[in-house]
Amino acid sequence: MQTIYLAGGCFWGMQKYLDQFQGILETEVGYANGPDTAPSYQDVCHDSGHAETVKTVFDERIMPLETLLDYYFLVIDPLSVNQQGHDKGIQYRTGIYYTDPSQRPVIDAVCAREEKKAGQKLAVERLPLANFFSAENYHQKYLDKNPGGYCHIPVAYFHMHDEMSRKG
User: Fold this and answer.
1) What is the model's pLDDT at position 164?
2) Which residues are catalytically annotated?
3) What pairing do the DSSP bridges indicate for beta strands 94-98 and 125-128?
4) Who has the most CB within 10 Å: 7, 35, 75, 99?
5) Which CATH architecture has domain 2-158?
């Protein structure tokens, strides 16, 4: 098992999106890479400096990190600074945060490929994880509990695994 922390705008949709894929063993939404004090959701919404992030535990044999990051890039705007969809603010920045330095070459290779496609430097942070604080329980699996909840990720992306299974 490996763990990576992915910030991609509002964490509700990113968690729902990642949960569909085989090899994703566990996800948890929280606040990362801000000050070392555990924030509340209200703190984060008032520019605490943390990013809404999904802690993602995965089986590298089933879901290689490169593939996981390819999926991540499908649902973010990697050029947008502090905004994804209609969500604006520092908490909605994009970032790939790691605790295992051996993941850095894969992260850099995927980001280099994405930069080449975009033709410009990405706004995606690539940093070691400084800290991660679990979000309040009502945020965990939010879109499963509230299927009509807002999300910047198109609903069709929550069913990619189903589509790939039918084709494959």
Assistant:
1) 55
2) 10
3) parallel
4) 7
5) 2-Layer Sandwich (3.30)
